[in-house]
Design brief:
Blueprint: H1 2-7, H2 10-22, H3 26-54, H4 58-68, H5 77-108, H6 117-129, H7 131-150, H8 152-179, H9 185-193, H10 202-215, H11 222-227, H12 236-264, H13 274-285, H14 290-324, H15 328-349, H16 363-390, H17 393-400, H18 405-430
Length: 434
């Protein structure tokens, strides 16, 4: 449940629908699902395996595993890079998470009532344009996140996800039920599930591949740290498959909830990142029961954001506990404080620092590019190479404990060849080489 919470986040409910809209709907969905199966699941199995074998933080696990396999200690950089990436991502993720808190308030107080497209754009512009509102919601989001983390795996993380993940699914299903009443539910299903490659391109394929990889939270140490908690005897393969199925299911259900509402209100499915914060409020503001369902929708986003944010900071917290002899509460305070302060850069990127750009990118743009387009792909490639080539066949086979020899052979081919090549293509495309 914790690892599923790590994988399910704003990327599923906010990013997946707008990418689907931009890239033509069903064809993008089909390729995305194929990428999850061929790329995401083998990569997740590898990362969980490394975590369970090492039983420590990603950094210390990779140090131990490198020694065990007579490999260079330089491989521990995988852990350092992933841990740092998690903190950097959370620093801006918490600002976006803060937006969901603000929009819960807006929806619950009727701010969306009768809202036009221009009105929604103005509302969003005024909201992100106020630096102190941004800082306030960012701070609240971080305080709650670190409170949960400070309570530990069983008292904090486990109890949180046991409540939050079912709540996430229930809220999604409620929204799907509401979408069924719009009269455009079948049009939404057709858009999602009837293959149409007329708007699909090579860029769409690369985008689907990247979304599948990043949606599962691979390459940042998050899944490795959860792997270190996995008991011996638990099937890594079946666990990874269940997480991937749940993650993909949330994305698809979110699409089933969103697109009928979009079509019912003659809105643009390919509106881009503004689909949720500028377009969806128009839909909820002009329908019966919109205040209730709009509030539920942004509560849903908040739940998804929290479950992922908890996992993003966990590798750094565990590092502080293991290497600096801190209590969990102390580690949570110090890592949370550093991440919170860094988040000010993102909060100000949309207002008082919006004109401060380097290479035509704001502070937020640089953080997003550095983590999503460089650090995570490099981490993913490194994990695949280490698990596929440097770990002995006997070790990986024993850890995975797969009953099928054929299944293990398929995993080896995917992790040795398919995954590194595919992620390399995404990386090269992201930096403009391919």
């Amino acid at each position: 449940m914790a690892a599923t919470g790590a994988a399910v986040g704003l990327g599923n409910i906010w990013k997946f629908p707008y990418l689907t809209g931009i890239h033509g709907g069903s064809a993008f969905v089909l390729v995305y699902i194929l990428c999850v199966a061929a790329l995401g699941i083998p990569m997740m199995m590898a990362e969980v395996m490394l975590g369970r074998r090492g039983r420590q933080t990603p950094i210390n696990s990779m140090r131990t595993l490198a020694a065990e396999n007579n490999a260079s200690q330089g491989w521990q950089l995988i852990g350092w890079a992933g841990t740092l990436a998690g903190m950097l991502i959370l620093s801006y993720y918490s600002v976006i998470g803060g937006w969901t808190i603000g929009y819960i308030v807006h929806s619950a107080t009727g701010s969306f009532s009768g809202l036009s497209g221009d009105g929604a754009s103005t509302l969003f512009g005024e909201f992100v344009g106020n630096p102190w509102i941004q800082v306030t919601w960012h701070t609240l989001f971080m305080i709650i996140t670190m409170y949960i983390v400070a309570r530990g795996v069983q008292s904090g993380l486990e109890k949180a996800v046991v409540f939050l993940m079912p709540a996430l699914f229930v809220l999604l299903l409620i929204l799907v039920g509401y979408a069924m009443t719009t009269g455009y539910f079948m049009k939404g299903l057709t858009f999602l599930f009837t293959p149409d490659f007329s708007h699909f391109s090579g860029t769409s394929m690369l985008t689907a591949m990247g979304q599948a990889f990043f949606s599962l939270s691979l390459g940042m140490g998050t899944i490795m740290i959860y792997g270190s908690y996995v008991p011996k005897g638990t099937s890594i393969a079946s666990t990874s498959i269940m997480i991937a199925v749940a993650d993909t299911g949330v994305a698809l259900i979110a699409g089933m909830a969103i697109f009928p509402i979009v079509f019912a209100n003659a809105l643009e499915p390919g509106a881009g990142p503004s689909l949720i914060f500028e377009t969806i409020p128009v839909a909820f503001g002009n329908m019966s029961g919109g205040m209730l369902f709009g509030t539920l929708f942004f509560v849903l986003l908040l739940v998804a954001a929290w479950t992922s944010s908890i996992s993003l900071i966990e590798p750094a917290v565990t590092l502080m506990i293991e290497n600096f002899n801190m209590t969990r509460k102390q580690a949570a305070v110090w890592t949370g404080l550093a991440t919170w302060l860094l988040g000010f850069g993102t909060a100000f990127s949309f207002n008082i620092w919006s004109e401060v750009k380097v290479f035509d990118m704001t502070f937020f743009d640089h953080l997003d590019f550095l983590t999503s387009n460089l650090m995570l792909p490099l981490g993913g490639i490194s994990i695949a190479i280490f698990a596929g080539w440097l770990m002995t066949k006997e070790t990986s086979k024993a850890e995975l404990d797969m009953n099928s020899e054929v299944g293990y052979s398929i995993w080896q081919v995917l992790i040795r060849y398919i995954a590194p090549i595919a992620v390399s293509i995404v990386l090269l495309h992201a930096i403009g080489i391919f």
